[in-house]
Amino acid sequence: MTSLLAPEHVRAIAAYQPGKPIEELAREYGLDAADIIKLASNENPLGCSGRVRDALCQAAASLQGRYPDPNGFDLKADLAAHHRVPADWVTLGNGSNDLLELASLALLDEGTSAVYAQHAFVVYRLSTQARGARHCQVPARDFGHDLPAMLDAIAEDTRLVFIANPNNPTGTHVPPAQIQAFLQAVRDRHGNQVTVLLDEAYDDYLDPEERADSAQWVRQYDNLIVTRTFSKAYGLAGLRVGYALAQPGLTDLLNRVRQPFNVNALAQVAARTALADTDFLAQTYALNRQGRQQLQEAFIALKLDFVPSHTNFVLVHVGDAARINGELLRRGIIVRPVAGDGLPQHLRVSIGLPQENTRFVQALTSILHP
Question: Which domains does the chain carry?
C-alpha cells in the first residue's frame, strides 16, 4: 500500500471528536432516539426561537439556485449596529470555529508559535498544529487562564494568543479588568506583532455584571480579534454562523483566507432574526441560570467537586469518568468526556431542560450509589 504524502504536522493531528450524535447512540445500543437526551455539545435546549423558525420557513420557500451574498451585507450591517463598530470590521464565519481557523491560517505558519491555556478549547491546539506552528500551552490556574504566565510565554516567534472567556470545557471566567490589563501589557511589550484572539462563544450566558463591552476594546487595540457565535445561546448550532470583530488590518487578512460563500443564505436570515429577538435571548439566559443552579446543587448533594460555571455547562469530577460515561450512554444520556483536554476524571455536562437535568442527576446518582 502506497503511503500518501502529507506534512508530518498534519499526520500528527488527532481529529476533533464531537459530541456523540443521538442517532449514533440509538444505533449502537438499540435505543429509541426519542428517549435519548444529549447534554454533550452545549446546545440551547430550547432550540432556536419561534421567530427564527418562521423566518426560515419563509426564506426557504423563496430559495433559488443562486449563491448567498458572499459578503453578508445585511447581517454585517446588523452586527455593526449591535456592537457599534463599522461594518467593515465584521468578518462572518461558518460558526465561530471557522473564525478560529481563519485566524490561524492568516497569522501562523512553520517558524511561528501560538500561546493558549491548558484545558482551553481543543481547536486552538488543532488549528495551530494544522499550520505547522509551535505550540505553547500554558498550565492552567484553577482550571482557567493564567494570564500573567501566558504573557511571559509570548516569544519572539509568537504571532497569536488564544483566550476563551468564558472558557470551554472548564466554564471559568476572567474578569474584564484582567483581560484589558493583559491586552495593554501585550501591546506595551510586543506592539502589534502579536494578535490576541478573544473567543466569547459563551458570553451571552454571563451574568450582566460580568460582561464586558469587548467590541469597544477592538477600537483601542488593532491587534485584537473578538469572536462570537450564534450556535450557543441563539440556538443556531445546526446552521453554523459566527462572526469576528477586528480593525481593518486584521479583517482584511481574515477575508483573504476566508472561503467564498462560507455562510449560507438561510444562516444569514436566521442570524439576523435571532439577533433581533432579545426576548428569546433573555428566556435562554434565565433557563440556563436555573439549570446551572439545579446541576451544581445536585453535585454538592452527591459530594462531587465541580468547577463553578459561568456558561451553559458544568465540569464535574466523577473519578472513573470513562466507566460512568459508558453507564450514562446505556441509559440514553449523552454527556462529554474530556480526557482529551487533560481531564480524564471529569465529565462536561451541558445544561438542558429541567426534566433533562433531573433525569441526568437521577441516572448519575444510581450509577454512583447503586
Answer: 15-48+279-368 (3.90.1150.10), 50-276 (3.40.640.10)
